[in-house]
Queue: 2 jobs
Job 1
Amino acid sequence: MRWRESSKPRSGLSGEPMVWITAMGLTVGLVMVVSLLGLILINGVTAFWPKRVVYLELASESPARLAGAPILAGEVVKRQHKTAPAASQRQQVEWQLFVGNKESYGLSFRYVDIDDIVAQRYPEQAMSIERLEYGDAIGEPLALRIQGEDEWPSDSPGFADRLEHLVREVAARRREIKRLEHSAIGAINARMTQLRLQRRTLEREDAPSGAAAYLAIEDAMAPLQARYENLAAEARELRRLQDENQLVYRIPSGDEVILPLGQIVGYYFPNQLGFWNRLGLFAHNMWAFLSQEPREANTEGGVFPAIFGTFVMTVLMSMAVTPFGVLAAMYLREYAKQGVIVRTVRIAVNNLAGVPSIVFGVFGIGFFVYFVGGSIDELFFHDALPTPTFGTGGMIWASLTLALMTVPVVIVATEEALTAVPRGMREGSLACGASKWQTMQRIVLPASAPGILTGLILAMARGAGEVAPLMLVGVVKLAPTLPVDSVFPFIHLDRKFMHLGFHIFDLGFQSPDSEAAKPMVFATTLLLIALVMALNVGAIWIRDRLRRKYATGVF
Amino acid sequence: MAVAPAEPRVGSAGQFGTARSTLLIDRCMTWFITIGGLGVIIAVLGIFVFILSQILPLFQGASIQPLRTVSTGISDAKVLGVDEWTALPMIVNEDGVLSFVDLEGERGTFQADPAFQESRIFSAYVYDQQAQRVVFATTQGEFALVDVNYEPVYDGGTRTIVAHPEAGAFVALGQPGVPIAQVAYGDSGAQKLVAVLQDVDGAPQVHAALLEQKQTLLGTGKTVLKATYDLTPLLSGTPQMIGVTPQTANSVVVATTVGQVFYFYFEAGEDVDEVVLRQVFTPFQDLGQSAIASMDFVFGGVSLLFTNTEGASRVFSLFVPPDGDTRLFGQTKTLPPLPGAATFYAPSLRNKAFLIGTPSWLGLRYSTTASTRLEMDLSYDVSLARLSGKYDRVLALDTGGDLHVYRLSDPHPEAGMAALFGKVWYEGGQAPAYTWQSTGATDDFEPKLSMMPLIFGTLKGTFYAMMFAVPLALLAAMYTSQFLHSNLRTIVKPTMEIMASLPSVILGFLAALWLAPILETRVVSFVLIVMLVPAVALLMGYVWSSMPGTVTNRWVKPGYEFLAVFPLLALAAYGAWLLGPVVERWVFVVTDAATGERVADFRLWWVQIAGLSFEQRNSLVVGFIMGFAVIPIIFTIAEDALSNVPPELKAGSLALGASRWQTAMRIVLPTASAGIFSAMMIGLGRAVGETMIVLMATGNTPIVDWNIFSGMRTLSANIAVELPEAPQFGTLYRTLFLGAMLLFLMTFLINTLAELLRQHLREKYKTV
């Protein structure tokens, strides 16, 4: 090793310190990636983790007191150094508490200076209630008021079981109401809307009033109306039952609150939970997030419609982009005469992949929505005008816009895959007497399929994460119906839909209480990142497998 | 096992031929793929054509088509009016006879009687198209308001426009018994202002009257006279022309024979309004011919159009001068000259367009952009002209009494190169400026659609992003390709590439809701980190490389430096983070204007010392977060370019005794420079078009300044903000398409350039 030492030039000349600067570049880049992912992972996961509820006794002069109440309770969300406003002041630590009970306090979060805290305790009885409205409630249960029975005080023996039983009953009833209102009544509504449109068509065609056609419509309407009334009455009765029984609890500021059980989505005693209980609750919360519909301006509940919308849109986009992309790539690589023109076209197509997505959105709204959609409305949905059917943003236009945006990705990937098929394979096939198409069909396309798939997955990843063009062509913050359901024709391409990416934008920027929405945003972000990363990793995996396959399988 | 010897086969033509179905299918598929592939490519490239087709109308002038000519037989017309449907124009002749011309039905030209309360001889008229009212002035020094009262009547499916003209009472104004030579009228709804010019024994006088219309629960009530004013004593010279601000009804302008203009303002007082002479100016002072030939208000009542007898035309607008506190007239525009003295004028009620002409020439001008929308020579002499309320018809009444009706098609008069890319002096502004403001609260609001603030915002965001991303990405690429141990490269590269797949909405959300609030209070820390981290890395490099190789090689093998440097950098960053507030308290101390206390706050310091604004969502945040989107792109492409440099070159350099840094700098970098440049270009293209990050992490204010602590509005964010609300085929809609087109062209050109460079590079290596 001696020669190495002696041959080493002086550091200034060799530029060795500069190597360290470049090393810094890489380090900073890696730290940025890792810390960003870590930040989202931690924040996204802790959003589901049940936290303990702390009861704080505050000093009498504390500005954090709510209406003068000495006790402030909640989940500690953040511990931070207060930024000193004046030059003289020293730094202080403050806690941010999620206090819940929004309808009583008028706010959800409160900052507490730790110097103001006289005492803190974690009462076993503290209860966290997830409600349909006003977010979570935090308090201590006092009693159950059940119709036709005596009051059940919270310290009576069967209280916990009874409450659990009732909440389960309420949840079952809520599902039933939803089934009635969405599926059953929804189907009747769809049928009635159809009949109304038929009547409008008749009116437009100046059919004489009292004609048989009118009577037929009336005949069809009457039983529907009756069925509708029945179902509506049934739903009303169930709703009444929901509010029959009540839970009485005391919120930390001392007031007693009576909550109809129908409002309760779930409840738990955060200070009684062990680690495994917490883990169970964590899993439950996560499942609820994935499977439920959003509530309260999207800040509570789940994101199921957004997941579903993203999924359907991505599938439709893939269905549109694959045949066209592959066709164009096959033409460019295999059929077109290679020359200046094809090279130019290839560069142009490649560069379209770098054109900003919003430009495709602009094209989508101008061409698909207004031009194509408007024409479809004129031709086939004339009766519904001026309410647009296809002449407004919708699932199909969003999918097509994104398909157009990702077509260059698929073309480039497919071309690369086609080029990668060894010449020997083609020549072998042609030498055996196969026609060009037979060679393509049996030899080239199967061999390049993984490459094409990689391109498709990359396109899907790009499509799933894109928001800007969707904002123009059909994404909404809250869609009342899913794009696929049990009402004929089952797939509603004209419907607007929800999307995970837009959900993040909407929650973060258009929700009334962005602080309260933060856990939801982080959770949604985590979900979207997981989705996009899974697609990307899948694409990389397929690419690697493909490489290995060809590395060994050379003719 | 015995095998029977194969019999020699005899080849037949059919055996070696291909089945016809195979050939047919092959031909079909060839056609299918060719047509389909070409179709897809054409469709994809058709995006450009479609967007172009949407924006072309912005740059087109107006067009006009003759519809019909109606003979009215009225050759002494004084007023030409028109209803909002252009169905029943109205003509008042010299004697005050009111006639209507039916353009839709069979009624022809007929007279209508407004039923004046007394019979008078009329001497002057003025028409207010917006209020549909004609002021009749008499030879006795009186005037009366006549409401035209147009009304649509529906009978079955057909619509007929009818008018019930209705005269108000005569109001005396000025010298009794003296004929009124000119009358001017302004109407703001509640207040009406009438000005008259009388020739009293060769000495013209100007008088004005304020009228008030009480608003009652049942609608508009009676019009009552509030006060009259004699403006003559305030004037010097001989008054020749008068005007009243049409929509505001609070000012009178008087032009004298020597070309001086007097601007009177009626200030609201407790009982009576007081008249104030605000300004005297001479529009054509610098020209030989300073006398004024015409003086008319453009729609909105803020701009006055003056022409002189030689055809020079200028627009004076009301604005608060930099050193004043009241709005005064100042010249804002010079319009193309007319062929002669203007004889007729008609403003549009939709925009700042107006018709003007000499008898045999007609021009349609747009005041804001000082542009000519349309010009035509006529085969007849026009006495009066009118633009319809919907800005879709031009009416011209010739001296022989023929009414010529034209269809006007001018959907985007406020657009054009000058308005979209040039500085425009908008009404109320102190100087020409690049302004983007597409919507406003009032009816006479004028959309300001300059693309320049948006282009500037795009460049600003891109600039700050590149400032941050380029050094980092290139350093990282250099290290990864040249110095990093090859075992690690397979891990490092995909990790950096993951960053490229992060949806930008996530980056935007983090920028706005997580980073911006932190950075707001920690600017100093951030700046310190940016300075300290490279310094520490450099220091570390010096210390390390001056140590003997036996020490260094034991601890850190070449190719692993980035791991060794990590703890140090983390320490440096944390130190800088803690040091930030300390430095802030030490250096950035200012007096808070609100409380008077001495506080250490960089935000206040920046505002006070630099005189620039400080916003929470600023360019620093955007630059930093957009770096996440740009770094992986530059990194990947630059790394590829550096790695693809032929190993012989490197080997040769190292063999000649160059150090690895010297090899990297002198051999590898120059060889790969084109590839690195192309990487930067593609990164630039991505930053230019980025939408969600800038939409979320800036305030989206279309301002033009380079301040790093203020926001911006980019072309892409502008589209996302405004397009959902823009009415189809409106000027805003097309302007947003223009923004998309600019983005398209910018990124397409940048990427093409990068691609060509890369191909050039590839060719170069082939020869090496």
Job 2
Amino acid sequence: MVKINGEERDLAGVTLADYLAGGGYDARRVAVERNEEIVPKSRYAQTVLADGDCIEIVNFVGGG
Amino acid sequence: MVPTQEEYYRALAERHGEELQRRFRQARVAVCGLGGLGSNIAVHLARAGVGSLLLIDFDRVDLSNLNRQQYFVNQLGQPKTQALAETLAGIAPYCRVETRAVKVDAESIPGLFDGCGIVCEAFDRAEAKAMLVQGVLEHYPDVCLVSGVGMAGLGSANAIRTRKIGRNFYLCGDGGSESGPDSPLISARVAVCAAHEASMVLRLLAGEREP
């Protein structure tokens, strides 16, 4: 199981790029941490989610 | 009359305690974006006696900023970096304020925050926020990053909170409310989020790691 934003999901084997696209995220507006390390945007396609991963997707919105 | 440096810091130490004041004074904090979030954050940090601030913004003061940003009509048209530095000089005359009137992009991040223990993300556009957070976490893994997301509209101010996302990454805001035609940025609520960011910075300087 993969923990994404606090929720356990059966996503092992899925790439981060596919998960983001499937979830309707705009990759230009997110930052993703995997096990407390930032995942560079250039590595979303190669990053394969694994059992035990803890993923935090921060979806930025405008305003400041 | 401007107080002497000794008088000034003695007054702060009387308020904050010697040890806390020493920690604040030794700190160097970057504020990226000097709009509703950043101008308020910088004022809070300067008032607390943070010793050194790096202020970054490419923009100039516009009439549309006066509803929520710490500028004055006689500063319209000035670079925000210059206008805010002048205001801070009137609040905290011994704070070392360094300014960069540049538009930050992914390429300019390495080197930009050298010597800063904490970076505040206070940009307006979602893409710019994401770019800065990505870049700082990637190039400055040991720097603490405090970011503001979701403060538009007039929803409950109680929805705005601070969360710890990663090892050195803190997120302030309601998480979702985006600015737009039906969800304007209003001073009081933006200032709540700015105060969350500034409070987290000061907690970190005090040695607290939890939000």
